[in-house]
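Researcher: Good morning. I'm working through a list of sequences from a screen, and I'd like to move beyond sequence-only analysis. For each chain I'm collecting a predicted structure so we can compare shapes side by side. This is the next one on the list. No need for commentary yet; just the structure.
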Amino acid sequence: MRYLSKKNRAILREMVSTDFKIRYQGSVLGYMWSVLKPLFLFAILYVIFTYVFKVGKNIEHYPVYLLLGVVLWNFFTEATVVGASSVVAHGDLIRKISIPRYLVVISSSVSALINLALSLLVVVTIALINGLRPETSWLMVPLLLLELFAFALAVAFILSAAYVKYRDITYIWEIMLQAGFYASAILFPLQLVPLQYQKWFFLNPIVQIVQDVRYSAVTHQTITMWDKVRPIFTIYPFIVIILVSVVARIYFKKQSKFFAENI
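Model: Good morning. C-alpha cells for this chain:
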C-alpha cells in the first residue's frame, strides 16, 4: 500500500517463503504442481477446442495462444481467491504481532506472482518448440504483467477486507470468476464474436491485458483494444485499475482497524 521499509521487506520475504513451504508441504511433486495444474487444464481445453470444436484452427500458434490465456487467468484467480482469505488465514499472526496488515495481502499476491513466473517459463518453452522466436514486442509483456498484478492486488485488498466481516464473499467471487473465465476470451479468439459485440469485451480490463500480451508475444492476429475503440478510450482499463486501487486503499485502511477483533 505504501513504500516498504527494509524491515517490512524482510517480513514480506519470510511470509512468502513460509506460504510456499506450507502450501506444498507433504506433496511429492512440491513446487511442480504450480506448473502442472495449468498444464493439465490447458491439455484438456486444447483437445476440446482444437479437435472437437475446432475453435483455434485459424489462429497461428494457437496452443501458445490458449496456454498463455489460461496461465494469466490462473494468476488472477489465485491472487484474488487466496488474497481474499489472507487476512483471516493470518489472524493469529495479526493478533499476536504488530505488523502492517497490508503485508499479508501482498504476500499472497507475490506468491501467486512467483507461480506465474514458473508457469511462464513453461509457456516460453512451448512457444519456442512451436516455432515462435523472441521479438522486440516481447518487451511489452513485463509492463502488461505489472498492470495485471496491480489490478489483481487491488481486488485482493477489497476482498480480504470484506471477507473479515462477510464470509460469503469468497463464494460470490468464485461464481463471478467462473463467469469471467468465459467472458474474458480466454478459450476462444475474439474473431469468433460478432463484430458489433467485440468492443464490449474490453469493458473488462482482463481482456485488454490478455489480448495485448497475446498480441505482443504470440501473434499479431490478436484483436486488441486499439482495433475496436477510438484512441482516447484505450485509457479506460487504466482508469478502472486506478479507481479500484483507490477504493482498495481507502476501504482496506478503514477496515483494518477492526481486523484483530473481528477475525
